[in-house]
Amino acid sequence: MDYALVNLTKDIVPMFEEVVLTSFAKGFGSRKSYAPDLALGIGDTIQVSIFEAQSGGLFIPDDAGSRPGNYVNLPNQTVDARGLMRVPYAGAIKVAGRRAAEVEVEIEKKLANRAIEPQVVVTTVTSRSNMVSILGDVNEPAQLDLNPAGEKVLDLVARAGGINAPGYETYVSIERGNKRATVLFQSLVDDPKENIYIRPGDTIYVNRERRTYLAFGASGLNGRIDFEDSNLTLGEALGKAGGLLDSRADPAQVFLYREVDRDILARAGVDVSKFTGDQVPTVFHANMRDPSIFFATQKFRMQDKDVIYVSNSDTAELAKFLNLINGVSNTAANVPANAMTTRTSVNKLTN
Known about the structure:
Elements: E1 4-7, H1 24-27, E2 45-51, E3 71-73, E4 77-78, E5 84-87, E6 91-94, H2 100-111, E7 119-126, E8 131-136, E9 142-145, H3 153-159, E10 170-176, E11 179-184, H4 185-190, E12 203-208, E13 212-217, E14 223-226, H5 234-240, E15 249-261, H6 262-267, E16 279-286, H7 291-297, E17 307-312, H8 314-350
Parallel strand pairs: 1-16, 8-12, 13-17
Antiparallel strand pairs: 2-3, 2-4, 2-7, 5-6, 8-9, 10-11, 10-12, 13-14, 15-16, 15-17
């Protein structure tokens, strides 16, 4: 497999910062960074209160003096599938998609010639049209109604009991219509712009993805290692892997393997003409004999499923070869002795 080779330097590091593939702020537009103005909708239960200026009107009888006020509460109604509700003497009122204040004005106009200076108050008893769902790795998955004051992503996560996995390996996705965006949970905490307002009908999905990297070669620890940090760097990853073994490792030959976006490599000056596809297999070479590289490795971000390989030094390879030669020599020298021992054993058995 063809691959690109990139020497890790302080100038190269900024070009390979971890790329945020999706963003709530960018994915759903900055113009939608304000709290939504919640409208009435199908399935909502609504209460209508009608006030009149004096008793003896359409809704207030002459003996209204014994009442707490010149108003009447109509029975609660549920907005039907056509988005309508009914008010006596006003008829069918279009409700779905409108604000309560708009509905109040329409009812007042339709009752103006029948009631005495009517004033109307529309109150939402229960809301079914302004719901959001939050699922996945939260402690209390649920369908929740939105607060009219506006709620952001972290507000809904809190109402669902919080996440049940470490934030550095938990991803939050929002589905809104035909759009979907995903960010790391830690980004919601660190970057306020990503903690956007949730809108009616949104679905929030919280998912844990274990973030790991592989370490091989002349490092103190080989195998799969957990990040345990949202911003793990190459220097920290080498430290978690036990560092470079003094007796085996070649500090000048430390490699990191990763697939990198083709456009990023092109901006870094790498010839990508021989590669097809958007992702290019890339090997980053770090010469740890250069003191400045230690500073670069502390800024070079690790990504999920990276592979680190530390090469053996020339002396270690020579030692392996000499051990092999020594083993072969010992085997050859022992052949006559082994043959003599075998013949003696056979003679004892036959006699």
